[in-house]
């Protein structure tokens, strides 16, 4: 396959992109990330209104932390900035993973937070097709279900490819000092809010999720 066919927009390649190495690293990071559940110091709220306020607070704090971390790591311009892409992803994902764990704890649902629920919350909005096998239709709703380790590996590979393709286009902003970092920071804020919102929707109910088309 020619270089042009791999990169039709003629964007600079990410490190390891030519041999699929970057997508593989992202896939491995995704699988490792969702395979463990971080501890949460949050207490379960007995009233729905209290739980909603606490969950929204977690969402806002996580979005702010992710934005600050991503913006800081995206400051180096050019090729040097590309080297921070995976560390930036991992940093933001760990913040988001903790937010999901905290929201589960607030709703008293920590025991229900497995790798499938974590993966669904974190990547439902960025790789919807990849995580569709985590849910089964029950009437008009979708229920998150356990899947075999092999299926989890397959899903993580698809998520890795999807995210790496998106990052090829976003990486061009790394050539623009300050402005690029601001864009990365803004996206991390927005992305973290969506992750938290998905977790809130999940743990407010009986582990039932509405899938958007």
Task: Please tag this protein with its features.
5% strand, disordered N terminus, 3 strands, 213 residues, disordered C terminus, mainly alpha, three-stranded antiparallel β-sheet
Number of strands: 3
| Head-to-tail CA distance between termini | 33 Å
Write the H/E string, N to C.
HHHHHHEEHHE
Helix/strand-derived category reads mainly alpha
Mean pLDDT: 78
Determine Rg (CA atoms, Å). Answer: 18 Å
β content, as a range?
A: under 5%
**Helix-residue proportion:** 55-70%
Low-confidence stretches: 1-19, 207-213
Write the SSE topology.
Layout: H1 3-6, H2 21-34, H3 48-73, H4 78-82, H5 85-106, H6 115-123, E1 135-138, E2 141-144, H7 149-170, H8 179-204, E3 208-209
Antiparallel strand pairs: 1-2, 2-3
What does this protein structure show overall?
By secondary structure, this protein is mostly helical. Helices cover 60% and strands 5% of the residues. It has 8 helices and 3 strands. The protein has helices spanning 3-6, 21-34, 48-73, 78-82, 85-106, 115-123, 149-170, 179-204; strands at 135-138, 141-144, 208-209. A 3-stranded antiparallel sheet has the order 1-2-3. Strand 1 (135-138) and strand 2 form a beta hairpin. Helix 3 (48-73) packs antiparallel against helix 5. The longest helix is centred in the first third of the chain and has 26 residues, at 48-73. The protein is globular. It starts with a helix and ends with a strand. Residues 1-19 and 207-213 have low confidence and may be disordered.
